[in-house]
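Homework help board

Subject: predicted structure for assignment chain

Our instructor gave us this sequence and asked us to write out the predicted structure in C-alpha cell form, then describe one feature. I got the C-alpha cells but I'm not sure how to describe them. Can anyone check?
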Amino acid sequence: MEEQGMQERRPDVFSTPVRAGKRTYFFDVKTTRNGQNYLTITESKRRFLNDEGKFIYEKHKIFLYREDFEKFIKGLDGAIRFIENGEYPEAPADTDEDAVHMDVNFDFEDLDRTDSEKDSE
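My C-alpha cell output:
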C-alpha cells in the first residue's frame, strides 16, 4: 500500500518518443481517476556528472489537460510562427495586447528561489 500523500502513478494509454539531438521528448497519454485522458510532455536530457563519473538523465515534465489543448496549441503555433518569420500572433480576446508583444527577461533559476532570496540580491 502506498503512503498517504504519495501520488499514484498512472499507466500510459499511449506513448511516443521523439529523439532530437541530445534530448528526447516523450508524449504520454494517461487517464485520470475519473476516466479523462491528459497529456504529459517530458523532456529528457542525458548529462555527465564529472564529480561522480556517471551519466544522469535530467527530466522536465508538463501536464496538459483536454480543456487547455486549444490555448496551448495556439500559443505554441504563435511562438513557432514568430521564430520562423518574425510574425507576432494576434492577441486572444481575453489577453492584454501588450502581454503578447512584450520581451520577457526571465531566468528559470528564479523558480527555485523564494521571493525573499530574490530581494536580498
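Reply (TA_rk): Your C-alpha cells look well-formed. For the description, you could write something like this. DSSP finds three helices and four strands in the chain. That's the kind of observation they're looking for.
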